[in-house]
């Protein structure tokens, strides 16, 4: 193995100003990354617009470009999920992207806020393992030989409703999104959903104060299951030696990330006991994570089972099983503020 040393530097400036009812936030982010004798530089403009139609209506728009020198490398095989962060090098280029978003927001009686926003994002030089490669970097092989870079595309719609005042507050958020990846060396060059492509994402939060001293909170989240790759056929290969013959099962086939894990959802609950004094405030918080003990899948693995046939014989079937590792978890915390 070898060490890689890098230096990153950045400079950022922004300004807020108004032209009538139009509020503008403009900024410029300059950055550089030096590694392995290579110097990467980037200028990333940012622009945010907010136009007030009247007291209760607002139009929002934004555009930004980004360069990322530390890259997320996710394993998409049917094993324990493994996310690694690897640096850009002389061979691995920094990831670059641009994103545009537009939306409208509406306020009702200064108590409720509703917003809808659509976004589109393009990414270059995203990173992934090559076909058949894993995160187990051996001493004989450079990890850079196991990865490839390509393009990404993400777009979606976000809807948000919030109650901001009163004894009962909270919000409901919903996101409909698509997240794609495309590499020349993966999936025959066809685009496929990213591991964390989540078609539907919902969050519901409710807070209620019974009194200044006691309050409760509920938070429910739901998300489409992660995309995974499953082999669609299996065959035997034969290895012959001078004094032996070995057979090895090989699994292959199937498009990249063409299957889904079970959808994820859980309910969290907490209750707060507050004490307010003149110069300080304390709070006990008792909570429960995954209150109804839903067995959300963490990873999947291939298994076999015996199936009895009508004639009394049995056959062996291959099945995919999901493993959950986080059941109901209680917690207690104490907070002190002065």
Produce a short descriptive summary.
The mean pLDDT is 87. Strands 1, 2, 3, 4, 7, 8, 9, 10, 11, 12, 13, 18, 19 and 22 form a 14-stranded antiparallel sheet that branches.
What's the topology here?
Blueprint: E1 6-19, E2 22-35, E3 38-52, E4 57-68, E5 70-74, E6 83-87, E7 95-108, E8 112-129, E9 147-163, E10 168-182, E11 192-193, E12 200-209, E13 214-223, E14 227-228, E15 233-240, E16 245-252, E17 259-260, E18 264-276, E19 281-289, E20 299-308, E21 314-323, E22 329-337
Antiparallel strand pairs: 1-2, 2-3, 3-4, 4-7, 5-6, 7-8, 8-9, 9-10, 10-11, 10-12, 12-13, 13-18, 14-17, 15-16, 18-19, 19-22, 20-21
Task: Classify the oligomer.
Answer: single chain
Main structural class: mainly beta
Instruction: Estimate the helix proportion, in percent.
Output: under 10%
Strand content: over 45%
Query: What is the N-to-C succession of helices and strands?
Result: EEEEEEEEEEEEEEEEEEEEEE
Shape: globular
End-to-end separation:
50 Å
**Helical element count?**
0
Indicate the radius of gyration in whole angstroms: 26 Å
Please give the number of β-strands.
22
How would a crystallographer describe the biggest sheet?
Answer: 14 strands, antiparallel
Low-confidence blocks of residues: none
What is the mean predicted local confidence, pLDDT? 87
Molecular structure report:
With 338 residues, this protein is an all-beta fold. 0% of the residues lie in helices and 66% in strands. The chain has strands at 6-19, 22-35, 38-52, 57-68, 70-74, 83-87, 95-108, 112-129, 147-163, 168-182, 192-193, 200-209, 214-223, 227-228, 233-240, 245-252, 259-260, 264-276, 281-289, 299-308, 314-323, 329-337. Strands 1, 2, 3, 4, 7, 8, 9, 10, 11, 12, 13, 18, 19 and 22 form a 14-stranded antiparallel β-sheet that branches. The two termini are 50 Å apart. The mean pLDDT is 87.
């Amino acid at each position: 193995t070898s060490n890689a040393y890098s230096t990153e530097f950045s400079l950022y400036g922004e300004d807020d100003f108004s032209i009538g009812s139009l509020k503008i936030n403009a900024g410029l982010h300059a950055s550089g990354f030096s590694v392995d004798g290579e110097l990467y530089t980037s200028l990333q403009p940012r622009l945010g617009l907010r136009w007030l139609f009247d007291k209760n209506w607002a139009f929002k728009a934004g555009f930004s470009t980004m360069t990322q020198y530390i890259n997320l490398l996710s394993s998409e095989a049917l094993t324990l999920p493994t996310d690694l962060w690897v640096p850009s090098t002389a061979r691995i280029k920094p990831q670059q992207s641009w994103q545009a978003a537009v939306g409208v927001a509406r306020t009702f009686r200064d108590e409720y806020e509703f917003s809808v926003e659509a976004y589109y994002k393009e990414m270059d030089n995203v990173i992934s393992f090559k076909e058949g490669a894993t995160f187990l970097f051996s001493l004989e092989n450079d990890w850079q030989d196991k990865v490839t870079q390509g393009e990404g595309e993400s777009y979606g719609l976000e809807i948000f409703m919030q109650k901001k005042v009163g004894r009962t507050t909270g919000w409901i958020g919903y996101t409909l999104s698509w997240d794609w990846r495309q590499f020349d060396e993966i999936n025959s060059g066809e685009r496929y959903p990213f591991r964390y492509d989540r078609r539907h994402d919902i969050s519901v939060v409710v807070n209620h104060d019974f009194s200044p001293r006691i309050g409760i909170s509920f938070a429910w989240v739901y998300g489409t299951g992660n995309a995974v790759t499953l082999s669609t056929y299996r065959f035997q290969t034969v290895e012959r030696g001078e004094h032996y013959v070995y057979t090895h099962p090989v699994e292959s086939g199937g498009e990249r990330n063409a299957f889904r894990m079970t959808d994820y959802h859980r309910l969290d609950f907490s209750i707060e006991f507050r004490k307010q004094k003149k110069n300080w405030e304390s709070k006990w918080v008792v909570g429960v994570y995954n209150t109804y003990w839903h067995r959300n899948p963490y990873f999947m693995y291939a298994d076999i089972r015996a199936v009895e046939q009508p004639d009394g014989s049995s056959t062996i079937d291959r099945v995919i099983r999901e493993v959950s590792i986080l059941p109901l978890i209680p917690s207690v915390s104490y907070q002190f503020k002065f």
